[in-house]
Amino acid sequence: MRYTMPLLAGTLLLSGCGRSGSDGAAGAIEIDGSSTVYPISQAVAEEFTLARGNGVRVTVGVSGTGGGFQRFCAGETEISNASRAMKDDERALCEQAGVHPLEIQIAIDGLAVVVNPANTAVQCLTVEELRRIWEPGSTVSRWSDVRDGLPAQPLRLYGPGTNSGTFDYFTEAVVGEEDASRSDYSASEDDNVLVQGVGGDANALGYFGYAYYSANRDRLRAIGIDGGSGCVEPTQETVMSGQYAPLSRPLFIYVNRAELQRPEVAAFVRFYLETAPALVAEVGYVPLPPEAYEASLSGLPAPAPAPAPDPEPDV
Fold first, then answer.
1. Inter-residue contact 142 to 243 (CB < 8 Å)
2. What is the spatial distance between Cα 250 and Cα 236, in angstroms, rounded to a whole number?
3. Which conformational region is residue 75 in: left (phi greater than 0), alpha (psi within -120 to 50 degrees), or beta?
């Protein structure tokens, strides 16, 4: 099955056929957070329901990495999708609320910097040029402000909102300080909105997770990034090798450790790690080496024993 990005990422509700599976799992699991990780968790949730048919409802939402952590630390979700590592203050907030997060890396992603296909003048940008475009107080307003020889056309910017882990990662990698960015751009926590914006604007420049570019190659064109060793375009190979620098990054899920005592949550997380190598690649990201998934599996709590059958009544 080939997974593609939904036109409008939102909440996916998956329910089984109302019976318990062989592992005794039944109930509901709520996931929220990063729109970048959303397609992976969506695919896993769908396959989990199809494979188990065990009456477990899995809800996958999109509120950005930061928004997802707020809900997770409040105990509103069992699993949080994240396109960056949890910050110290977020971890402290969780701990204060009695939520103890288990961090699991599930993939590698590259941030694609994209333009409209009608823009044939821009093939590559240096990290320094990106910094001058996106830094706070930037006066870059036309393509010709970026570099001599580019057209004197308006430069309209599209990027993730401030609750997005993609925003955090990009600003630190490119501007040099997390959360430092100009504010006069079209922002959204939903990468599909950014795809639509760049795809409909001949003078646009945007950035978001590689998988969203990969699923929309007919509407977008990724440009190369020169991190100091020449122009490199984002591909699964350049992201995995680290050649696509500095815009390669890890992707995570965070699991509430207490929720792993619930059979349905433990079963889902195990299924996630078992199917991730295939599904991560299927939705356009870069899988980890097999031993990384195996190590995460071995670090999970042992499955809870099945409940003992009721004793036979005395005759």
1. no
2. 13
3. left
pTM of the model: 0.77
Six-digit token string for 256: 């509430």
Pick from 29, 81, 80: nearest CA to 54: 29
What's the CATH number where 99 sits?
3.40.190.10
Contact 215/284 with Cβ under 8 angstroms? yes
Q: For residues 109 and 215, give the distance between their C-alpha atoms in angstroms, rounded to a whole number.
A: 14
188: which strand partners? 160
Within-domain flag for 308: no
Domain boundary among 214, 232, 248: 248
- Whether residue 189 is found in the same domain as residue 157: yes
Distance CA 223, CA 231 (A): 9
User: What are 233-249's pLDDT values in tens digits?
Assistant: 999 899 988 899 999 99
Buried b (16+ CB within 10 A) or exposed e, 279-295: bbebbbbbbbeeebbee
* Dihedral angle sign, alpha carbons of residues 42, 44, 49, 54: negative
Site of tokens 């882990």: 165
Per the structure, how many domains does the chain have?
A: 2
Instruction: DSSP letter for 174, please.
Output: I
Helices (H) and strands (E) in the chain, counts: 11, 13
Asked whether 206 and 100 are in contact (CB, 8 A), the reply is no
Q: What is the pLDDT of residues 154-175, one digit of tens each?
A: 999 999 999 899 999 999 999 9
The range of the structural domain enclosing residue 74 comes to: 12-107+251-298
